[in-house]
Amino acid sequence: MEEIIPTLLQPVKEVVQAFTYICLFGFIFICIEWLIPSSKKLLKLLFIYLICFYCLEPAYRTLELIQSIAAELTTLFIGMYPLLTAGLAMSGGALLVTAWNPGVILFSSFTAVLAEKILIPSITAAFLFDLISRIHPKTSFTKLADLIRVALVGTTSIILVLYSFFLTVGGLITWTVNGAVNESFKRLIQNNIPFVGSLLTESISTLKSYSSSASTITGNAILISVLVIVSVPTIQTILIAFLYRFLGAILQPFMDADISGLLDDIGKTLFVLSIVSVLIAFALFFTIILTMLFAKLLVGMKG
Amino acid sequence: MIVYLIIILAFILLQFMKESYPRLHSVIYTIYIFLFLYYIIVSILIPYFQEVITIVPTPLLPVVKLLLFSVILLFVSQIVEELLLEYEYTSLASMMSFTTKAIIILVWVNHMKQFYEKFFSIMGLFT
């Protein structure tokens, strides 16, 4: 926990720093514009450059983080899954486990590859299109960026629906949260996380239904630890996305519309990235659970 | 305060000059403007900016220096441009404006190398 909290808080610090930089440079540029009004356009361009230089660092890093996790996961799948499958087959108990579907292996590796090769580059493209639209409003790619975002959310929701097809609850309910509380919690997420809120709650439900059956294999404590670990990148991404949108909202009255709009767009794109990172979290979760299952079966066979 | 005083004195002297030696007036005026500009930059702006730089945090120092350089350049070029336009040298004025903008853009582009590197590294994600 001592390591998770600073990891989650680091981006908050960076975004607060970005906020200070924007306020400071905003004030300096307002003064300069007042002194030299004839160069307003040039000064605006320089200000956007400065914002890109100083304030996009957390967004870049998040994108790179998710990209690197996806890449490593793909390598892991290629190297580990044949071994895991063979191990499970050799131990002979794979098909006896409740709610076990071998298709999940193939499917989760497919989603990781899809995320790495198509979804994350598409988010990068949306990010760049937003940046170009704001730096040079005459060459506006806002519709294209929106189209990419909507298409990505659609793709991710289809994948999540497919995930829920694969994962059927084996009648073992270990999720002890009261149904009413659970439902209101879902509503809270749906209403407060813009753009991807409902999709996020659906993915949580899917993960929950799988964890109900997986907990019979691993036990609740380990399962919760695994869930917390795999959800760290997603939580971090959502946090950064929120902070960017918050920054855009706070700066709107004082700054140029393009600057607050740029921050808002980055926030939106990061929300989409967060939902892609849920897919990666799913795949990572299954890998860990399957490894544990393999270890358990191996121990059982020896015993 | 001293700047106001110099401007008022110069105005009076230039008016005298205009009445007594009207042919020399424009030359004297131009020389005076350049000398006054030099005085303002060397004895007022640069010492003041040097003082400002000392309170700027280190990570922001390169950008603040660049910003101050751009401001001084824009200020000088604007004054020279207006002078040229006053004497109807429009082409020279637009060349002056173009050169200033080109210098500022080049200096900033050079400074933003790190940003472009990041930008291209993001483009690398497509491959």
Please characterize this protein's 3D structure:
- The complex is a heterodimer of chains A (303) and B (127).
- By secondary structure, chain A is an all-alpha fold.
- Helices cover 84% and strands 0% of the residues of chain A.
- Chain A is built from nine helices and no strands.
- Chain B folds into two domains: 1-49; 56-127, no CATH class.
- Chain B is 88% helix and 0% strand.
- Chain B is built from five helices and no strands.
- Chain B has helices at residues 2-20, 22-55, 61-86, 90-111, 113-123.
- In chain B, α1 packs antiparallel against α2, α2 packs antiparallel against α3 and α3 runs antiparallel to α4 (90-111).
- The N and C termini of chain B lie far apart (62 Å).
- The chains are: A mainly alpha (303), B mainly alpha (127).
- At the A-B interface, α1, α2, α3 and α4 of A face α3, α4 and α5 of B.
How is the secondary structure organized here?
The complex is a heterodimer of chains A (303) and B (127).
Chain A: H1 4-35, H2 40-55, H3 57-91, H4 103-135, H5 142-166, H6 179-192, H7 197-218, H8 220-251, H9 257-302
Helix pairs in contact in A: 1-2, 1-8, 3-4, 3-8, 3-9, 4-5, 4-9, 5-7, 5-9, 6-7, 7-8, 7-9, 8-9
Chain B: H1 2-20, H2 22-55, H3 61-86, H4 90-111, H5 113-123
Helix pairs in contact in B: 1-2, 2-3, 3-4
Task: Kindly list the characteristics that best describe this protein.
heterodimer; A: 303 residues; mainly alpha; 0% strand; B: 127 residues; 2 domains; 88% helix
